[in-house]
Amino acid sequence: MDDLIEGAEGSVTRSWAERGGASPYVPGNPTEMLDNLRLLLRAVDENRPPDDVLGWSSDDTTVRDAVYALAKSGLVVRQGTPVQFGLTPVGRDYLRGGDDGLLAAALHANIRFFGEILAELGDGLTHVELQAVAKEKYGLEWRSLDQIRRRVYWLRATGMVDYWTNNKILLTDRGRELLGRLDLVDPAELTGPPVNGDDVVDLAEAPPMLAQRLAELDQEQLAARSRVVGYVAGGTNIETINVLVAAVLEPVPRARFVRLCVETFQVAESSGEQTLNTLRSLGLIDQVGPDAFSATAVAAEWVSSGDPLDFVRILHSKVALVGELLTLMSGAARASEITKALASSYATIRLSRDEVTRRLAFLSEAGLVERLGNSIRRTALGAAFAGSVPLLATALEPQAADRADVVSAASRADVLRLRERLVETSVDSGNFKRFEETLVEAFRALGVDVERHGGAGRTDLLVSLWVSPTEQIRIAVEAKTDGGGVVTEQDVKFDALAEHRTLHDARVTLLVGPGFSNRLVQWAADKDVVLVTAVQLADMLARHAGAPLYPHEFMALLGDGDDDAHERVWRRLERRQSVIAHLLDIMWKSANDPVDIEYGEGALGVREIWRESKRLLDVPMDKTEIQEALALLSTPFLSAVATSGQNHVATTSPDAVAARLRSLADMIDNRGRPAIVPPVNYEPRRSTTPETPPRPGEPDVNPADVRAWALANGRGVSQRGRLSTRLIQEFLADSN
Fold this sequence. Notes:
The chain is of the alpha+beta class and 736 residues long.
């Protein structure tokens, strides 16, 4: 909100990055606009309440709405709590009788491509031609003529240009005189080379406690940071957050903080509650009593310093991929391109474009990035900042060799945090939106697509399950909170749920809440409504982390509500994983057991594997399970098992198989690109030393020759370890 109306530095021209992109707006044609503007400025000067109807003849616009429509004009500022508006020195001078040149200079100082229009007109240009200039020279890719027309209207109203009947816009003498006094941007600076961080910048050090927090961040903590910034009343900008944190430097009750949000930003009480939760998750506010909240120590340091960089440092310590984002900005790029770059470099942390845009807004406000039309570029200060904070390693960096451990730790932390939040937010009846946001995270963690809708006549969430190229199943999700932990039949309108299913073409409704009354459970069964408690969904998250389900398997969990049927879905997958792991372990032990090697070359048949599984598992492997596992392990990619007749032998260790599967997972995550830089090809020197020295009295043979002979004759043989005496004797007999 504040960034729409801030600015009172007179006609001192802001940098291009600081200037607004949207033109101020007042109704009327060029002959009426200035009278309407003065009416607004007079209302502000007289301290009329923000919700008063202004009195423009065209509509019932309030003072508040009219001020916000002025955007970054440099004429009005916000002040006080509850919110009031005041005139800047320029706004006051203009109202007191300043000429129109003062107004035009103020608009140029605060919005992009205003005075620059005067410099580009030459012998005259049309609106369409000006739009092309704005795009090609200034990087302003406006899709319509609206922003051009608004600027030209202001220039016509102030007498700086004329509009001719041939659709040309031409400079007037007054415009030419003003042009000579304006500080214009050089278009070459906007399309020049990107900032590479080599410039010397003054990067202030972090305050002591904040510096200590940053120094203590390790890879596990960096990987476990929150993906979501969260909602803040008044907009997610640094100035607004500073105001809120400054208000709780001394402990205040929850109700007082909520009232501050309501009165300052005209939001609902639930939005104030949500704001408090967001600031707590960002490490800016902490609960210090049964009903008391206060700024954290690092937040108090930031309020004291007033440096926006300290806020970004706090944000980086709590929210994923803030400083990391700066390292990927090698040149000017759009938010969508930056989002893709983050997804490529940090495949395990998926951010939506909206979340990336929020981060960029904070970075821009702190001067770490600058906007060039629809693109964003890192500043020298941004490059220096990125080098001053600990960063999460990417998959391509050498320090990410333990990436699997980092990802595993991050996944565990995420699952634990989500499980706790699901249960906690389901009983927070004063802030249902927080529960909805947590559900969005939970469904994404389950690997399904989810959209948040809400609003009258619409479902809260819409989940899409990809089943096949020709089939997707939609599920309408309704979130219900209850402070007592039980959602009753009085809380649910089944007719509305049916309408939501029809609207979204959903197959079923999933109602998620803390718990449900017995009558609601009975009614839901006949209404195509599946009930899932927050605890059940939390358990799904935990099991999914260890045994991920495919979408069609997930759909089986939403069937008839039979807990035994649900358990069978998980158990089948967990059983298959257990069988493969135990079978591989059994075969590797046999391949390295001297007795098994002596009597069977370390090879095992299906019956021997079954017998060994009886000792390890409560339910022994059956023949089909064993054969399916052997088929998987003997695929060319894994080659973990060699088969000879009815027997099978391990060719490598379980650790090596796990490493190969992890490399495949990394390759899939990176869409076919290797997760690490491949080594330089070289030809190693081959050793002529026998693998193992012969036993006393044992014939001196080359083990490789024996193994080649055994495989050629259909004999099972281990690729490692000592060869049996009988096998060597048979090899020598056949050779002679």
